[in-house]
Design a protein that fits this description.
CATH topology of the largest domain: Helicase, Ruva Protein, domain 3
CATH architecture of the largest domain: Orthogonal Bundle
Largest sheet: 4 strands, antiparallel
Number of strands: 10
Bound molecules: zinc ion
Order of helices and strands: HEHEEEEEEEHHHHHHEE
């Protein structure tokens, strides 16, 4: 599943490619024919990312909501697009290019109350300038659930996935199994700061590199694939060299270093 940085990058790219002009919309696969018809010929005003959700805004409060889920993906074509092949749910085209959307969990039109309800269900997104970390803290500080589960719960904090969970908790020395209410306010502030920095970094780089140049002993751009995380998919901790433990947490694999994290 893509993490928030991928979604924010898509929002920027799509706004740049199709924004400010009338788009043509079609559903080559046929599963979004009515929705595509409503968008067709409308001007794309902007694209917002909230956690893992994308909102494409058109005039008259018309909003297209997309959530990629586990299997969804976008393909961008500059210039004239190829003939549609396979299960393309939605094809959006403008003067400069085309975006194909395949296999999303959600691709639907929303009216303003539906958009409001969606945003109310989501926790603050560290990548958004208007994010209010207090909302996440209110949930975390009262919860007996493990902090590792809380940071990936999109209603607590939006946009954080499995890699950033493992890495930000390692950097802050917080064990994923620690109950939310045992995280101190200072630890939460530092964790929010680390998540924000890591996600912003991911938006810039287009890939996840959480290990610092200092810890890697080389510029971050040169860190080989497979060595770019401290504990995620590692067998030894890239900070202390000790063994990394992994286990299932709410159906997703979690990683932690028992030496660095408590
Ligand atoms: Zn360690």
């Amino acid at each position: 599943m893509p993490e928030g940085h991928t979604i924010h990058r898509a929002a920027r790219k799509h706004a740049e490619l199709l924004g400010g002009a009338a788009v043509s919309a079609e559903s080559p696969q046929g599963r979004f024919t009515d929705g595509a018809r409503e968008i067709d010929g409308q001007v794309l005003q902007r694209v917002d990312a909230h956690g893992k959700h994308l909102l494409y805004r058109f005039p008259d409060d018309l909003t297209l909501h997309v959530h990629l889920g586990l299997f969804g993906r976008f393909l961008t074509h500059r210039g004239a697009p190829p003939e549609p092949r396979g299960a393309i749910r939605l094809r959006l085209s403008g003067p400069d290019g085309t975006i194909d959307l395949r296999g999303p969990t959600a691709c639907e039109l929303m009216d303003p109350p539906e958009v409001e309800a969606l945003l109310a269900r989501l926790g603050p997104d560290p990548l958004r300038a208007d994010a209010d970390p207090e909302r996440a803290w209110n949930r975390i500080s009262r919860s007996t659930r493990p902090i590792g589960a809380l940071v990936m719960d999109q209603s607590v904090l939006a946009g954080v996935g499995n890699v950033y969970r493992a890495e930000a908790l390692l950097v802050q020395g917080i064990h994923p199994e620690r109950p939310g209410r045992e995280v101190t306010p200072a630890e939460f502030d530092a964790l929010w700061g680390t998540l924000t920095r890591m996600l912003q970094d991911g938006v810039r780089a287009g890939r996840i590199i959480t290990v610092s140049a200092e810890d890697a002993g080389m510029p971050r751009s040169r860190i080989p694939r497979g060595e770019r995380t401290y504990v995620y998919r590692q067998s030894t901790c890239r900070r202390c060299g000790g063994p990394v433990r992994d286990w299932q947490m709410d159906g997703r694999r979690a990683w932690a270093c028992p030496t660095c994290q408590s």
